[in-house]
Design a protein that fits this description.
single chain, mainly alpha, 2 domains
Length: 166
């Protein structure tokens, strides 16, 4: 055999292979698509698990608990308002409700009312003062968030006439 014959044979084999693969694909394309989806899903799951494992390697159990609590709060505070979507007249009401709920739940978490996390002290690192000493943050945040203009007089004293904070 010479070089030209070899090239023709290779071309014929490639063409036959391509036709056979195309026919096989047409006959079983649903299985191929499902297989592709499954492979992509498994790859994504492996990457997510690797990410979770890597994140947790560098965190203490308390830190993991804290961030798991925050993830729960986020999911809860998104899902509940979505289930009552028709209650809201406009986007501002929805956002106020969601942010209020998030802030309140985080304050509860810091006060020790989470699932596993104990009460946390919030410390001003400059002065050393424990900001939440002697108070329940979630109770105080209700006072401020429900009526910010009269809550301990703080916010109203620190706003300029145009409504911006000084």
């Amino acid at each position: 055999m010479n070089l030209e014959t070899d090239e023709v044979l290779v071309e014929l084999i490639q063409d036959a292979t391509q036709k056979a693969l195309s026919k096989l694909f047409q006959e079983h394309k649903e299985k191929f698509y499902m297989w592709k989806i499954l492979v992509n899903y498994m790859t994504n799951m492996e990457l997510m698990m690797e990410n979770i494992i890597n994140r947790r390697i560098f965190m203490t159990k308390e830190q993991i608990n804290f961030f798991e609590e925050l993830a729960y709060i986020q999911e809860y505070c998104v899902q509940v308002p979505l289930s009552k979507e028709d209650k809201y007249c406009n986007t501002e009401e929805l956002l106020k409700d969601v942010t209020y709920e998030v802030i309140y739940r985080i304050m509860e978490l810091l006060d020790g009312y989470g699932r596993e996390l104990q009460r946390c002290n919030i410390v001003n690192t400059v002065t050393g003062e424990v900001i939440n000493e002697g108070i329940e943050l979630h109770d105080k945040c209700v006072e401020f968030l429900e009526n910010p203009f009269i809550a301990d007089g703080f916010i109203s004293q620190h706003r300029s006439k145009d409504g911006n904070y000084m």
